[in-house]
Design a protein that fits this description.
The protein is α/β, with parallel strands linked by helices and 311 residues long. The protein has helices spanning 3-9, 55-70, 84-93, 103-110, 119-129, 152-158, 185-195, 210-218, 231-235, 264-274, 279-290, 296-306, and strands at 47-52, 75-82, 98-102, 134-136, 146-150, 174-178, 201-205, 223-227, 239-240, 253-258. Helix 1 (3-9) runs antiparallel to helix 5 (119-129). It is globular. It comes from Streptomyces hokutonensis.
Length: 311
């Protein structure tokens, strides 16, 4: 069955991404059952996990590793490989087998003009958009969305509370973010298309890292692209600009995996983790790495042991 015909079969067949309906928690069907890759998928030769170049994704990669190892799967983690523009091609080419991903960001990467925002609909849209050989497994409880923040002082000076307010000061403000944000829909492109925002300058920094946060503190940038699970937002009393037109879609954590290794053992292990890890817990794990300077692998392994994933 190809990707174009899969959606029509979802309602009647147990597959990688079931037809999802919203519920109070925004999470459905995390049992990990079914297979979109047929019966040939096997993890007997091991699974290589890649991660992007920011704290949270590295923590998630090691959490995936702990869950899979506990299920008897041999794993290798290749952390800090780079941005999506690097890790996604690495998955397609077979250099890695599995990535921790984010629903909305992945969909806008694959389909820049996509307007889908609800988590269940996005899961189905991802199933259609992914190239042959790749699939998304059921999404988890935890969510981490992009956000655009300003200092409290900047918010007061310019009267900023929403992304729409930025357009009142076109040509006056500087945005700081990773280089890719300049061409992403959830970035400069979408801010202009959806809200009519035009910045005075774009400064290419890092992805939710010390460079962009340092620039925001110093006033070198007025607006910064960060992630909602970043504990520095609350610690610094920064203001997250609200998104009344839903430019930023749902961003539940979702495993992106090659069909070749998506066997029932792998699927069940990752589904169990997804059904356990909450947004608050993920935020705390980020804090331990960023603030307490703990190693991402150690933080992930401690969580796995404390929550019964490993012994």
């Amino acid at each position: 069955m190809n990707r174009r015909t899969l959606l029509g079969a979802l309602a009647g067949t147990a597959v990688a991404v079931p037809v999802l309906s919203s519920c109070a928690s925004g999470v459905t069907s995390l049992d990990g059952g079914g297979s979109a890759g047929g019966g040939s998928a096997s993890s007997k030769n091991g699974v290589t996990i890649g991660t992007a170049n920011f704290t949270e994704n590295q923590v998630l990669g090691y959490l995936y590793a702990a869950a899979l190892e506990a299920a008897g799967v041999k794993v290798k983690v290749r952390p800090n490989l780079g941005t999506r523009e690097i890790v996604f091609p690495a998955l397609k080419s077979g250099d890695i087998d599995l990535l921790p991903e984010y629903q909305g960001s992945l969909l806008t990467y694959l389909q820049p003009k996509s307007k889908v925002a609800e988590a269940g609909e996005m899961q189905n849209a991802l199933t259609l958009a992914l190239p042959s050989g790749l699939q998304v497994l059921p999404y988890g409880i935890a969510e981490d969305a992009d956000c655009f923040v300003v200092t409290r002082e900047t918010a007061r000076k310019y009267g900023l509370a929403t992304l729409a307010d930025l357009a009142k000061h076109n040509g006056e403000l500087t945005l700081g973010a990773s280089a890719e944000v300049k061409t992403r829909q959830v970035g400069v492109v979408g801010l202009k298309d959806v809200y009519g925002v035009e910045f005075k300058e774009f400064k290419s920094l890092d992805s939710d890292g010390p460079l962009v946060k340092g620039a925001l503190k110093k006033g070198d940038v007025d607006v910064a692209n960060l992630f909602t699970t970043d504990t520095d937002i609350k610690a610094n009393d920064w203001v997250v600009l609200t998104d009344p037109k839903t430019l930023i879609p749902s961003q539940h954590i979702v495993p992106l995996i090659a069909d070749r290794v998506a066997d029932p053992t792998v699927r069940k292990a990752l589904a169990s983790l997804g059904n356990l890890l909450t947004t608050a817990q993920l935020t705390e794990l980020n804090r331990q790495v960023d603030k307490d300077k703990k190693d991402p692998e150690d933080v992930a392994n401690t969580y796995a042991k404390q929550h019964g994933i490993t012994k």
